[in-house]
Design brief:
heterodimer, A: about 100 residues, about 5% strand, B: about 600 residues, mainly alpha, Sodium/glucose cotransporter, two-stranded antiparallel sheet, two-stranded antiparallel ribbon, 21 helices
């Protein structure tokens, strides 16, 4: 292995650890808003009224879905930063030309 | 113009649009046929994914199912959206980096094994065909109800249109058609939903209308009123479920993991230019899906409220015309058990099974139901599928809205059918013919095989649509369980574990698939009399067993991998390279 390969794989490992951490945090939120608020805690939350909804019911049929969308966009932005921080982002030069 | 003419016009125009796109975007190479050349813009891919994903079941059936299940309908709402988070965070970017054409391609290469590839192809074909038969049937039903053509003729027209753009255009044709289909279907879904929300709550946004007060001066919110009304009739409250918590949990998890493992969804992320585009595209896909999925619970609740208020304790002679028109088609049936000439609605079945009618009409002009009456006071049979289709009529919306809903329902069914056909044909021509049996064929020959496979698959799908095996409707939900138990764990471990080897992956897939398959077959076909919570394992119904199957897949795969030979060095390098977006040259691309 050359020095450059070593440096690259060290960076790649740190990048991967940061990636796993981010993924774990986001999936924990994913679990709490859907399985937590929408299913396991639905009864206690239903005693709270939220804009005309029982809160547990709102999380189950509305809130969780909004959170899912938000989580993916947060992931996209954070990964974009991680890609640049560890210098593993795709090179714009090698990007294939768009068809349209 | 009457509704009939408008419907012909709308559906005809949408077909002309789809075929026009097909001719404009013909596929010239296998790369274009399988992954649209990898040039699709992330937003366009998001729309195409949304149309691919939202089938006749989402468009026609889901709001109706929620209307009658209340809180329990949550399993579909969360289950069919939450999977995109798993897909975006765990699979899509890495599979895009891997950069091949199909899901079995990844499994075959990552597990350095043609056996693994063939197991993946087998899972893919089982999952996709159970799913597709329902779509073709959906096309037939929409045609027969809105255009008064025979169901079988409807299926054949649908086949012909899909044939045009799937066989000619491949993924390229399908992608741009699906973008158009998404626009048609979301518009067709939202317009009646907005009208009905205005009608019931004075709030034009259905998502907010669901929490607003009913506009009848009672000062009650929609959900409170629905709870009260249903409890008054002897139902459970709408906002509380009847399923056990563990079952709701398992079904939701199985649907989520299954969604992330569905090949026709995964393959859409092979079509964008870059890894970062795959991430963004998943976000857009879910955003476009969420637009419909957050509207559906509102439509369901409004429809249920509307239905109860219009039907219960109303004299049949004074009932709204839509009730009779759906009775004429046989999706509503009324049996005047207490002979008071009024319709009573309540919990429990009105009579045994689906209604069968005699030729004669009753004194009030109602169709005579000949089924054996059931004990309870309920007199009305209503097919849940009509809720979305009948909503515009129930709310007395203009004819063009009804025509629009018909075009939207056809778009939803066709887009999903086409996406499924493509993954079936790609896995046959690419994974079986090109990579397993006849490695020496040229790109042109492979493209020809792909087109032939697509044509054959359309034929089989059409056959299943015309002669549906009795179990299709029951089995569609199980496609998710099977995808969850077989494909998702294998793909995820292929990315997140460098140690997972060939033996572990194959053992995991086979055991997950067999376990889930046997559990479902046992409770649905072998011993349906035992299909109740008393006999289920851990109280998990066959619909939710895929969650346990996936867990089993993970456990078996990890244990087997401890006792079998380690992964070869070049595979470790492959795994490391798919974890990093920047291309180092050896993996990306295809030709």
């Amino acid at each position: 292995m050359t020095d450059r390969d070593n440096a690259q794989s060290y960076g790649a490992r740190a990048y991967w650890r940061a990636n796993l951490k981010l993924t774990a945090v986001l999936l924990a939120i994913w679990f709490v808003v859907s399985f937590g608020f929408g299913i396991l805690l639905v009864e206690p939350l239903n005693r709270i009224t939220f804009f005309g909804f029982k809160l547990g019911f709102w999380w189950a049929q509305q809130g969780s879905i909004y959170m899912f969308v938000l989580l993916i966009f947060v992931y996209t932005v954070c990964m974009h930063r991680l890609d640049r921080k560890y210098d593993v982002h795709e090179d714009p030069d090698t990007e294939e030309p768009r068809g349209d | 113009m009457d509704v009939q003419t408008l419907t012909y016009l709308f559906v005809g125009l949408s077909f002309a649009l789809y075929i026009g796109i097909a001719v404009w975007s013909r596929a010239a190479s296998t790369r274009e046929f399988y992954v649209a050349g990898g040039h699709v813009h992330p937003i366009a891919n998001g729309m195409a994914t949304a149309a691919d994903w939202m089938s006749a079941a989402s468009f026609i059936s889901m709001a109706g199912i929620i209307a009658f299940m209340g809180y329990d309908g949550t399993v579909y709402l969360m289950g069919w959206t939450g999977g995109y988070v798993l897909l975006a965070l765990l699979l899509a970017p890495y599979l895009r980096k891997f950069g091949q054409f199909t899901v079995p391609d990844f499994i075959g290469t990552r597990y350095y094994s043609n056996t693994a590839r063939v197991v993946a192809v087998a899972s893919l074909i089982v999952v996709s065909f159970t799913y597709i038969a329902g779509q073709m049937r959906g096309v037939g039903i929409v045609f027969s109800q809105f255009l008064n053509v025979d169901i079988n003729l409807g299926v054949m027209i649908g086949m012909a249109v899909v044939f045009m753009y799937a066989v000619l255009g491949g993924m390229k044709g399908i992608t741009y058609t699906q973008v158009a289909q998404y626009c048609v279907l979301i518009f067709a879904y939202l317009v009646p939903a907005i009208f009905i929300s205005l009608l019931i709550t004075d709030n034009p946004v259905p998502q907010l209308g669901l929490g607003s007060d009913v506009a009848d001066g009672s000062g009650m919110s929609v959900l409170d009123k629905l709870d009260n009304t249903l409890v008054g009739l002897g139902f459970g409250p709408y906002t509380e479920g009847t399923k056990s918590t563990v079952d709701v949990f398992a079904i939701t998890l199985a649907l989520m993991v299954g969604t992330a493992g569905l090949p026709h969804v995964i393959v859409r992320f092979f079509t964008v230019p870059k890894v970062s585009d795959a991430r963004r595209s998943a976000g857009y896909a879910l955003l476009f899906i969420a637009l419909l999925y957050t509207t559906a619970p509102a439509v369901g609740a409004f429809a249920r409220l509307n239905f109860v208020e219009t039907v219960h304790d109303t004299q049949y002679s004074e009932i709204d015309p839509w009730f009779r028109s759906w009775e004429d088609i046989g999706l509503i049936g009324w049996l005047d058990k207490n002979h008071d000439g009024a319709i009573q609605y309540g919990p429990g079945a009105p009579f045994e099974g689906r209604p069968s009618f005699s030729e004669a009409r009753g004194l009030l002009g109602e169709r005579k139901v000949v089924n054996v009456p059931a004990a309870g006071p309920n007199e009305v049979y209503v097919d849940r599928d009509i809720m979305v289709l009948a909503n515009p009529e129930i709310a007395s919306l203009p004819g063009w809205v009804i025509a629009l809903v018909a075009a939207g329902a056809v778009a939803a069914a066709l887009s999903t059918a086409a996406g499924l056909l493509l993954v079936i044909s790609a896995s046959v021509s690419h994974d079986l013919i090109k990579n397993t049996f006849a490695r020496q064929i040229t790109d042109r020959q492979e493209l020809l095989y792909a087109r032939l496979a697509a044509a054959v698959a359309i034929g089989v799908a059409g056959y299943l649509g015309i002669n549906p095996p009795g179990f299709v409707a029951q089995v569609v939900a199980f496609a998710f369980g099977l995808a969850a138990a077989s494909l998702f764990p294998a793909i995820m471990m292929g990315i997140f574990s460098r140690r997972m080897n060939r033996e572990g992956a194959i053992a995991g897939m086979v055991s997950g698939l067999l376990f889930t398959f046997c559990y479902i077959v046992y409770f649905k076909f072998v011993a349906p009399q035992h299909n109740s919570a008393d006999h289920w394992w851990f109280g998990i119904s066959p619909e939710g067993i895929g969650a346990l199957g996936a867990l089993l897949n993970f456990i078996v795969a990890i244990m087997v991998s401890w006792f079998t030979p380690a992964v070869p060095e070049q595979i470790r390098t492959l795994v490391e390279s798919i974890r990093v977006p920047r291309s180092t040259g050896e993996v990306s691309g295809s030709t």
